[in-house]
Design a protein that fits this description.
Membrane topology: Multi-pass membrane protein
Mean pLDDT: 80
GO molecular function: chitin synthase activity
Strand content: 5-15%
Shape: globular
Strand order of the largest sheet: 1-3-2-4
Distance between the termini: 19 Å
Radius of gyration: 16 Å
Largest sheet: 4 strands, mixed
Organism: Spongospora subterranea
Protein name: chitin synthase
Main location: membrane
Helix content: 40-55%
Low-confidence stretches: none
Length: 135
């Protein structure tokens, strides 16, 4: 349903393919039970380090996330590129954006050091049976 708002998360150093947003919107429209999804992120530069990073990204994204998505939900929406239904984010926003006491190191690490994985877990927990997070 394209009448409901979608939120796009993109890192400031990302250069999107000209069809990336249209493709994400199309996928969200064609998967009404998908609460959020991501796409393939690659490095667009030359050199050995970039080649190594691209190999790692392709392995971790295409293989791992692709397999997880086929099984019903990926375990981590990358903060660099994700599209989430506004209503789904609204449902978990209170817990996700809650201020934590600094004395609670475990909770601080859980939410602050892996905020993209934490948000993904909240989305999956909020719709345990009929909804998914895809790639």
């Amino acid at each position: 349903d394209l009448q409901k708002p979608l939120i796009l998360f993109v890192d400031s150093d990302i250069a999107l393919d000209k069809f990336a947003i249209a493709h994400l919107v199309y996928e969200m429209a064609s998967r009404p039970f998908c609460e959020a999804l991501t796409g393939l992120i690659t490095i667009d530069s030359d050199g050995l380090l970039s080649l190594i990073q691209n190999c790692e990204y392709i392995e971790s994204q295409a293989l791992h996330r692709g397999t997880e998505s086929m099984m019903g939900g990926i375990s981590c929406l990358p903060g660099a590129l994700a599209m989430i239904r506004f209503e789904s984010l609204r449902l978990v926003a209170r817990e996700y954006f809650a201020q934590l006491p600094s004395s609670n190191a475990v909770s601080f690490a859980k939410r602050s050091l892996g905020e993209d994985r934490y948000l993904t877990a909240l989305l999956l927990e909020s719709h345990p049976r009929s909804h998914r997070v895809g790639f």
